[in-house]
Amino acid sequence: MNEMEQTRMKNLLKQALPPIESGPAGEPEPRRDLWPAVLQRLDARPAPVPWFDWALIAGLVALAGIFPAWIPVLMYYL
Question: If we measure between CA atoms, which residue out of 9, 33, 31 comes closest to residue 22?
Answer without folding.
Answer: 31
